[in-house]
């Protein structure tokens, strides 16, 4: 770089700041985004925090750096705002593992059981559900319901984890996150032998075998808070590798080991700094939800958002 001139990344960052001001736009980014995208975000967070933030912003345009269901949720909660997803094919495969018809069949088989829907789902599936949850509040949401039998969709592993922490009868659906399902318990044991003082923190989308080895089971932002507050200096982290950038940046004296080199979500990585800039310049891709579906889906999201959230725990 010639002294005094800006690097390509700096130039893009500057252009983004100008565009944001000109258009009254805000950039919300999930904790799994590429480091350079995290760096330009106005707000970085987990699914629950991002949903809350989407309802609080005064901006007219929300650029959502994450996957499809997250931008869709922002649009459901803000029908009057323009919600942009920089890469249209950044899609969560778990969300595609259940259809509205599957939910209707589950309801027929379990009459009277309410449906708790993990936010990693389509708007049409949320519209068939009673209440949404995220990894940060799943146990709390399930315990907020008076019924004893609960249908939990679409993540089977998160559902199993919730079932292990509540007295409720949980009906499961066989959905899963292909990224988190790849982590093997053996990989965690191997790292724990190498770093015996390390604390093991994992996401509840991991398999029950992996969860059984964890010191704490947490959403992505809960992991950030947990690492800051823990006396431990070393951590084995069972979630997507993008979070390690934030963990390291916010905890300079601590060491973080990714539980498995396979922990990469290809969809979260589709968004680049260039696509964020293009998204604002061309106002693409606008995410909208048909009004009939939106009105049904917003009920399930709003019901979740009225539940008060603990700061650090996935549990009760
Ligand atoms: P968080 O809500 O914990 O950020 O997780 C979202 C997700 O997609 C996990 O794979
Ligand atoms: Fe979906 Fe898994 Fe990627 Fe999260 S990490 S967005 S659950 S595929």
Structure notes:
This protein has 316 residues and is an alpha/beta fold. It is built from 14 helices and twelve strands. Helix 3 runs parallel beside helix 4. The longest helix is centred in the N-terminal third of the chain and has 16 residues, at 8-23. The model is unreliable at 311-316 (pLDDT under 50). Residues 31, 46-47, 120, 134-136, 177, 203, 205, 219-220 line the site of 1,3-dihydroxyacetonephosphate (13P).
Task: Draw up the topology in text.
Elements (H helix, E strand, L loop, with lengths): L7 H16 L1 E6 L4 H6 L2 E3 L1 H10 L4 E5 L2 H10 L4 E3 L15 H10 L5 E4 L4 H5 L3 E3 L4 H6 L5 E5 L2 H10 L3 E3 L13 H10 L4 E4 L5 H4 L4 E2 L2 H10 L4 E5 L3 H9 L4 E4 L14 H10 L8 H15 L11
Parallel strand pairs: 1-2, 1-3, 3-4, 5-6, 5-7, 7-8, 9-10, 9-11, 11-12
The structure holds 1,3-dihydroxyacetonephosphate and iron/sulfur cluster (SF4).
Structural class: alpha/beta
Global mean pLDDT: 95
- From the N-terminal CA to the C-terminal CA, the straight-line distance is 52 Å
Question: Helix proportion of residues, in percent?
Answer: 40-55%
Q: What spatial form do the alpha-carbon principal axes imply?
A: globular
Low-confidence stretches: 311-316
Which series of helices and strands comes N to C? HEHEHEHEHEHEHEHEHEHEHEHEHH
Number of helices: 14
